[in-house]
Amino acid sequence: MQVGLSGRVFDAVIFDMDGTLVDSTPAVVRAWTTWALEHGVTAEQLTGNHGVPAASIIARLVPVDGRERALARITELEIADLDGVVPLPGTLDALRTLPADRVAIATSCTRPLAEARIRASAVPRPSVVVTVDDVEHGKPAPDPFLAAARGLGVDPGRCLVVEDAPAGLEAARAAGCATLAVTTTTPREELHADLVVADLAAVRWEVGESGISLTPVG
Questions:
Q1: Strands 128-130 and 103-106
Q2: Predicted model pTM
Q3: Phi/psi at 182 (5° precision)
Q4: Neighbour-count burial of 21, counting CB atoms closer than 10 A to its CB (0-12 exposed, 13-18 middle, 19+ buried)
Q5: Cys-Cys crosslink for 103: which of 3, 31, 77, 126, Cβ 3.0 to 4.6 Å?
Q6: What pLDDT, in 10s, does the model give residues 161-176?
Q7: Which residues contact 83 (CB under 8 A, 6 or more apart)?
Q8: Which of 3.30.160.20, 3.40.50.1000, 3.40.640.10, 3.30.420.10 would CATH assign to domain 12-24+85-216?
Q9: Per-residue pLDDT tens for 11-51?
Q10: Which residues are catalytic?
């Protein structure tokens, strides 16, 4: 195990959703491909935006007077396409093992999209789900993880964030959280975290009187 998490104990775990808990990549690609064709945006212009809120992506690509319509359209496309949205390896075991009051989701999705993907994937829904609609600034700003920690009633410095995207990891570090990265959507060399593993099936969660810890498996 990498030194960064070895022997550490946490009060809570905050999970990103897309690419971390659920595999929504095919649906995301389909929706954004359709949107890009409709808006004259190239595939190159969309590169490197994983984990970034849709509104932030659109703000870089669409003139001010068209942003509201563009955001409404991508939201419509994504909510309509839930085919193949399923739990990633290790997700169900993690959410069944960890105490429900010590788990949160912090996602760059809007509230309607997050709830739709949680239902479609049938993953257990934590009581604390923070979406881009709940914060002033989305990832890579720390706001989503700070809000999740507040919702759980814990110190961000005692939280472990699980992410698959550089923007999310940047946000977690800015919030003062420890980081676990999964290589489900991003090459390992681009993920700067305390520990990097293939997916959630590569770790075993342990819950004790002092808190939550994890060890690698396999």
A1: parallel
A2: 0.89
A3: -115, 145
A4: buried
A5: 126
A6: 999 999 999 999 999 9
A7: 26, 27
A8: 3.40.50.1000
A9: 999 999 999 999 999 999 999 999 999 999 998 898 877 77
A10: 16, 18
